[in-house]
Amino acid sequence: xxxxxxxxxxxxxxxxIEPEETVGLKYQEIPNWDSVGHMGLVAAIExxxxxxxxxxxxxxFSSFEKGMEILRKYDVEI
Length: 78
What we know:
Layout: H1 3-15, H2 35-49, H3 55-60, H4 64-73
Helix pairs in contact: 1-2
């Protein structure tokens, strides 16, 4: 499984959405991506890529695309 597939899978499993719904998705745009869903999503991404995100990155993680940008800081290319 590619890094992009793992990243999309974290959204699909955590937020109960379809893969095609991830593109352009923003924090709090859907009911499942609330503050609790956000922390679950962060945990799923951290597990998938064996990283620990900084608090600032967790706060800045405001969209599907922003998450990919943040992961580059942790040497994860998507």
